[in-house]
Amino acid sequence: MKLHTKYLTRLLTITFFCASLCLLPQSANLAVKPSAMTPANNVAMMFESHIRTIYNNMDLANKGLNYNTFKYALIGYYNINPDRDFLTGRTKIAICDFRQPSSQKRLFVIDLASQSLLFHTYVAHGKNSGLVYAQTFSNAPSSLQSSLGFYRTEDVYYGSNGYSLRLEGLDRGFNDRAKERAIVMHGAAYVDEGYIQKTGKAGRSWGCPAVPLELCHDIIDQLRWGNYVFVYTDDANYLNNSTYINLHKAATAYAKKEGLSIN
Q1: Which in 27, 122, 215, 248 has the greatest CB count within 10 A?
Q2: What's the CATH superfamily of 86-244?
Q3: Tens digit of each residue's pLDDT (9 = 90 or more) over 57-106
Q4: Could you tell me the pTM of the whole model?
Q5: How many angstroms separate the CA atoms of 109 and 226, rounded?
C-alpha cells in the first residue's frame, strides 16, 4: 500500500508540473537561446539589448515598471506595423500595468524617441474586472471589464465624460470591439490622488482606462492621433495568442529600421 501511494504521489507531481508548463507563455516567441546563434537570433539579442538599454536609461525599475511588461510593450510597438514610418509625435506608448493595484501609479506614458517618461500616474480598470486588482478581462459588450492588448489612439472629442480620446482595439479577440463598447481614455474624479488616499483604491470605470482629471488634457494631447496604449497583466492566454507578442518579428522590424543585417 505504501509503495502504491509513493508512485501515485510521484505521478500526480509529474502531471501537475506538465500542466503548469502549458499555462506559461510560449518561450519561442518571447526569448532567445544564446546556444542557437543564428543570424535571426543574433538580431533578436540586439533588439533585447536595445530594450534593456532604454529601460535602464529611463530608470523604469525604480519607477515601478516591471521589465517584462516594458519588453512586451516594445515588442508590440514594433510588431503593430513593421513598415511604419516613425513620425514625429507618433512615438509614444501608454502602458497600463494592471499587474499592480489601482492604489499605485500604474500608468506610464513614454516617448520612445526622447526616451522620456512623460507621465507616471493612476489609471482605473473596469468595474467587473476586480476591486483593487484587475483580475478578469473581456472583449464583450456590456461586460464592464477592461480588455487586454494594444490600442491605437485616434481623435479627441467632448462626451459625457468630458475631454476624451478614442481608441481602436488592435488585438483580435481581446480588445477589437473597443469602439463598439465605447472604450476611450477620459478623466474621472475617482482616479484622483485624494480619492485614492481616502478609499485605498481608485474607483472603477465601465472598461475605459480613466485617468486623473487634472492630467487628463495633457495626457490625451500627448497621445492623440497615431500613438499607442497597452493594457497588460500576466495572462498566459493573451501572451500565447496575441499576434503582436512575437520577439523575432519585432526584432526584424527593429533591424530594418536601424539598417542592421538580418541575413
Answers
A1: 122
A2: L,D-transpeptidase catalytic domain-like (2.40.440.10)
A3: 999 999 999 999 999 999 999 999 766 656 677 899 999 999 999 999 99
A4: 0.86
A5: 14
